[in-house]
Amino acid sequence: MHTYEARTFALPALDGISSKSIEEHLSLYAGYVKNFNAITALTGELMHDSEKNAHAISELMRRRSFEFGGMRLHEIYFAQFEGGASTLDTSSELGKTLTAQYGAPEHCVAELKHVALMRGPGWSLLYWDAQAKQFLVGFSGEQHQGHFATLPVVLALDVWEHAFLLDYGVLGKGAYIEAFFKNLNWDVLQERFAQLR
Questions:
Q1: 186 class by beta-carbon count within 10 Å (0-12 exposed, 13-18 middle, 19+ buried)
Q2: In the 8-state DSSP scheme, what is residue 185?
Q3: Cα–Cα distance for residue pair 81/56, rounded to 1 Å
Q4: 3-class DSSP state for residue 150?
Q5: Are 40 and 57 in contact (CB under 8 A)?
Q6: Shortest CA distance to 92 belongs to which of 81, 102, 100?
Q7: Which of these, 47, 110, 147, 157, could form a disulfide with 124 (CB 3.0-4.6 Å)?
Q8: In 10 A of CB 73, how many CB atoms?
Q9: Going by C-beta distance under 8 Å and a sequence separation of 6 or more, which residues neighbour residue 4?
Q10: How far is CA 81 from CA 74, 75, 76, 90, 169, in A?
């Protein structure tokens, strides 16, 4: 069985998101990786007597997908800051496709922000549906629920409290969201989208 390892990210100093907040956030991400591996190992052991351990296995399996979702979404999230902030190249495939669907890329960003500001923790996510050739904005409250099944994520915005409490306090989600987009490296997203196309 494959053992997952926490990735390292070459993150620059971010404007409006402190290094301490990033440090804490990376520790939380590493916890998802560790927990997924531990649950996988324990579930394998318990399966040797699956009838006796049926209830424990069912609870672990529910938790396992939560840990995996946390691991993978954070990998998408942190990678979006690598290389430093950059603007969207509107002549790129991502820029042209966003413009074709939304009229202007900033309309998609506005939708992502609106979803991110909804009450409660979760993720504001931009997906690409290759079959329909369109973007879909969605919200996942529990990391492993609420996703558009099978669709890859182009942009992941973490709006769990741990992402902004340290820098902005309990009412600071909006300020954090603005800081997120200020630090976003659109080149990473353009490359991500190009691979999906």
A1: buried
A2: B
A3: 38
A4: coil
A5: no
A6: 100
A7: 157
A8: 23
A9: 33, 36, 37, 71
A10: 11, 11, 10, 19, 22
Per-residue pLDDT of the chain (197 residues; tens, 9 = 90+): 799 999 999 999 999 999 999 999 999 999 999 999 999 999 999 999 999 999 999 999 999 999 999 999 999 999 999 999 999 999 999 999 999 999 999 999 999 999 999 988 999 999 999 999 999 999 999 899 999 999 999 999 999 999 999 999 999 999 999 999 999 999 999 999 999 98
Judge whether 81 and 185 are in contact, CB under 8 Å.
Answer: yes
Q: Is 100 exposed, middle or buried (0-12, 13-18, 19+ CB in 10 A)?
A: exposed
Phi, psi of 103 (to 5 degrees): 90, -35
**Residue 82 and residue 11 in contact, taking contact as beta carbons nearer than 8 Å:** yes
What's the token pair of residue 111? 């939708």
Answer whether 138's CB lies under 8 Å from 146's CB.
yes
Distance, C-alpha 151 to centroid of its chain = 13
CA distance linking residue 103 with residue 108, whole number of Å: 9
Strands 123-129 and 153-158: antiparallel
Instruction: Give CA–CA dist 197/129, Å, rounded.
Output: 10
